Amino acid sequence: MTAADVRRSFLEFFQKHGHSVVASSSLVPSNDPTLLFTNAGMNQFKDVFTGAEQRPYKRATSSQKCVRAGGKHNDLDEVGKTPRHHTFFEMLGNFSFGDYFKEDAIAWAWELLSKVYAIDTSRLVVTVYGGDKDLAGVAPDDEARAIWKKVTGFGDDRIIGLGKKDNFWQMGDTGPMGPCTEIHFNFDAQGKWPTTDPASWQGWLEIWNLVFMQFERREKDGPLHALPAPSVDTGAGLERVTSVVQGVRTNYDTDLFRPIIEEAAAVSGIAYGAGPESDTALRVIADHARCSAFLIADGVLPDKTTREYTLRRIFRRAVRHGQQHLKITEPFMHKICARVVELMGTQFPELRERQSLIAKVTLDEETRFRATLDRGLKQLEDELGDLRRAGGGTLPGKKVFTMYDTFGFPDDLTKIIAEERGLKIDEEGFKAELAAARASSKFVGADDAVGRIYKELANELGPTRFLGYDGRGTAGDGALRAIIIDGKRVDSAQQGATVALVFDQTPFYGSSGGQSGDTGTVRSSRAEIRIDNTEKPAGDMHVLLGEVMTGSIAVGDKVSFQVDDDRRDRIRANHSATHLLHHALKHVLGDHVGQKGSLVAPDRLRFDFTHGAPMTEEQKRQVEDLVNLEIRRNIDSVVEVLPLDQAKQKGAVAMFGEKYGDQVRVVSIGGESIEFCGGTHVRRAGDIGLCKILSEQGIAQGVRRIEAVTGAGALDYLRKLEDELLRTGDRLKAQPFEVAQRVDKLLADQKALDREIGQLKQRLASGGGGRDLLSEAVMIKGIKVLAAAIDVDDAKVLRDTGDQLRDKLGSGVVILAGTGGSEVKLVAMVTKDLIGKVSAGKLLGEVAAQLGGRAGGKPEMAQGGGKDAAAVPQALVFARQWVEDHA
Fold first, then answer.
1. DSSP-based three-state secondary structure for 102
2. Confidence (pLDDT) at 612
3. Of 50 and 265, the one with more pLDDT
4. Distance of CA 69 to CAs 36, 306, 800, Å?
5. Which residues of 2-17 are buried (b: 16+ CB within 10 A; e: fewer)?
6. Which parts of 112-253 fold into alpha helices (H)?
7. Per residue, what are the HEC states of 556-609?
8. How would you classify the pairing of strands 159-162 and 124-129?
9. How far is CA 302 from CA 71, 362, 643, 738, 848, in A?
10. DSSP, res 874
11. How far apart, in Å, are the Cα atoms of 713 and each of 213, 571, 662, 663?
12. What is each CA distance from 255 to 1, 262, 441, in whole angstroms?
């Protein structure tokens, strides 16, 4: 049975049982701003489960595209190394929205696995919710256990009851939740069933999870209520199920991956199975090609923003594996992605529809990367070499950013190369450099030809009349004046075209003053255009960027506009909050505070300002309190158009990066904030809801950055924070307000243990383990010289041991080589009475050179290291000879 058969059989099986087959949703979530990518089958049904959305069916089944490559699911380094880590995967699922429940769900799952897929049932076990003291009001799921017994004939030893962590699912603190049951497979079961002991699950593979939403929590920490119409949400990874059906032990050996691996092997000339290094590289390429092709088909293009940057990291990781481990010298990923399209384009037609785009983007991206890869690798090797020679261990964030910005190296690529050499990178420093660069990025970018087109259009057509200040400001009518496709002006555009549109007037706000551009829909009598962004690349001309979804459009067409209302409302709240934040910062920190940049997005706000030191926690609290005080006062916003001089006299503050004419728009939010602003704002301060500061950090000399959320975003953040606190409390067996005290105790205990371990190591190193190091000292020209190798990797332990041995010698020279790690650590000590005869720094510098390393220090003490552990005995002989020659 092929993977296509597994997928088709799943969907047809449930369709036969009254389920509507629902197409996979996009990998870019349309209804959940908290998700980087769609990562589960239920994502597209979330509102259906909560009752917020009604659909014409009660049963559904799907094969959902998923990507897990960010946030808590960021296991990118494991992809290719393990049998089942992937960036892209498919989740098979069947769903009941208040229709059938446990009996049907379990019976159908068993029928599909045992009869349709003909899986060896002697290798299966299931888990059910077995109760948990943290869910005292929820009894063990004896109903599911009884159904499994009836359906399968399993005894209790093959129906294992586990707790809340493994077998109870909830969407959040409130809403639907319930127990789940999981089906597990083991190729080597042989009648040995797992138990509640986690160690007994080694080798068992979860292939299907059935969630039974039978409870509802109406308020946080409130009681659970039985749902009148329970629901079912199941998920079975296609890759895992296929590996079981096809009898192969890794997902990479299924026909979902092998044809792609073989394509990469053919391109490289290295067969799969030739060796572990090349095999890992081939698996990485196969996985990343799948992920890249699907993301590009869903409109994600490699770039420097969060979602796009994730794609770039994945794609360039594959290229590097091909070049470094398979010695592929020419662009190849477009060929591998083409094989992905060939294999999966029938099930996912968007791959074939965008095949040329996938080919172009992958070839261009790899060509650009390869143009700098060799040069970048040489530069990075030089940087890492300098770092090691200087005795450093961490590559500064600015250097990591240079590799990213100049040579196109994603930070994790630099990190991997550094780690291969025993070094680290300053990840936080890199993030700060990246954030500063993004804040100053421009729409036109490096494409001067495109920039010229917009400038010419702006000169010809003049400014676009903005309708967004009138009424709700999210609807209106207009006439199409220009169409741009691929940087060229055209008269018309057909369905599927990616377009840039200019109208005589529009309610769509063009990105400026830090505020994000609007999205939404434009309709004419014969077309519908999805607008993905709105920019102002030249003057006050608004350019709407999007795709013709149906029909065709032509210059001169009359259209109606509909801005995404909810997104605009969130942007309004965040924009108004930046004004209040600016005023509060001046009040708390002083009048030296000035705006240096901002980002007003639907999900968050960012505010950069001049200030020479990190804010204290008390200052942040004061600023947050002042902002929320103005929100609670709920004063109406006032918008005025005034002469520039009059606005200045009124005390209006100019916005960052804006130029002003004789007449300016002045916005007053709350009772104090007055600023020049052309953006959209709430009608009254209370519409912001709540403002919560997430972070405050430095991004450049004298420039600080605050990130915050408002309204629903603030509520989401606080709930997540609360969830984390509760989870931490659960793990520590502490109430939320006792967590800090419990952590302090654990840290104190750990510190005491570390101290004790260090003392034991030191005792062992200095002879406490039976070796009398002092007896190994030799007399050279009247000087006691102790040169020895000890099994130590901790530099502090090595240093402390040297101190003790020096003191015990009374007068003498100590040279120790720590050989307990991958590299040799060195220390030299000279007693004060011998400093005029022997210099520890000079001595150890030459000893380290014998090991291919470096050292430095003072006449009485020096430290260093070396690479060649095999040369340690000769180096110690050299040390003794050095004393004899120089004393």
1. helix
2. 73
3. 265
4. 9, 11, 44
5. ebbebbebbbebbeeb
6. 142-152, 164-167, 238-246
7. CCEEEEEECHHHHHHHHHHHHHHHHHHHHHHHHHCCCCCEEEEEECCCCEEEEE
8. parallel
9. 18, 9, 45, 45, 45
10. H
11. 26, 11, 37, 35
12. 10, 11, 43
Calculate the alpha carbon distances from 560 to 495, 523, 619, 811 in Å: 18, 5, 48, 93
Contacts with 278 (C-beta within 8 Å, 6 or more apart), sequence order: 268, 270, 272, 325, 326
- What pLDDT, in 10s, does the model give residues 423-448? 999 999 988 887 776 554 433 333 44
- Determine the angle formed by the axes of helices 306-326 and 355-389, rounding to 10 degrees: 70
Residue with tokens 């005023």: 583
Question: Which helix (H) or strand (E) element contains residue 206?
Answer: strand 205-217
* Rounded CA separation 521/545 (Å): 11
Q: What does the H/E/C string look like for 158-173?
A: HEEEECHHHHEEECCC
Residue whose pair of structure tokens reads 């000292």 in the numeric block: 777
Rounded distance between C-alpha atoms, residue 471 and residue 474, angstroms: 8
Question: Would you call 344 helix, strand, or coil by DSSP?
Answer: helix
Rounded distance, CA 361 to CA 354, Å?
Answer: 11
- Alpha carbon 880 to chain centroid distance? 54
DSSP state at residue 198: G
pLDDT value, residue 307:
83
Q: 399: how many CB neighbours lie within 10 A of its CB?
A: 22
Query: For residue 541, what are its two tokens?
Result: 């001309």
Please state, in angstroms and rounded to a whole number, the distance separating the CA atoms of residues 466 and 294: 37
CB 577 within 8 Å of CB 602 = no
Smallest Cα–Cα separation from 533: which of 601, 622, 627, 439? 601
Q: Which two tokens stand for residue 568?
A: 């605009």
- pLDDT one-digit tens code per residue, 677-710: 989 999 999 999 999 999 999 886 567 899 999 9
The count of other CB atoms within 10 Å of the CB of residue 661 is 7
Write the pLDDT tens digit of every residue in 36-60: 899 999 988 887 887 767 788 999 9
Distance CA 607, CA 600 (A): 9
Q: Which two tokens stand for residue 811?
A: 């007068």
| 563 burial type by CB count under 10 A (0-12 exposed, 13-18 middle, 19+ buried) | buried
445-451-457 Cα angle (round to 5): 150
- Measured in degrees and rounded to the nearest 5, phi and psi for residue 318 equal -65, -45
Cα dist from 573 to 59, 468, 567, 688, 719, whole Å:
38, 15, 10, 5, 19
Reply yes or no on whether the pLDDT at 767 is more than 60. no
Question: Average pLDDT, whole number, for the chain?
Answer: 90
Instruction: Look at residue 661 and tell me whether its pLDDT is greater than 70.
Output: no
Q: Which residues lie below 8 Å from residue 482, measured CB to CB, with a gap of 6+?
A: 457, 461, 489, 501, 502, 555
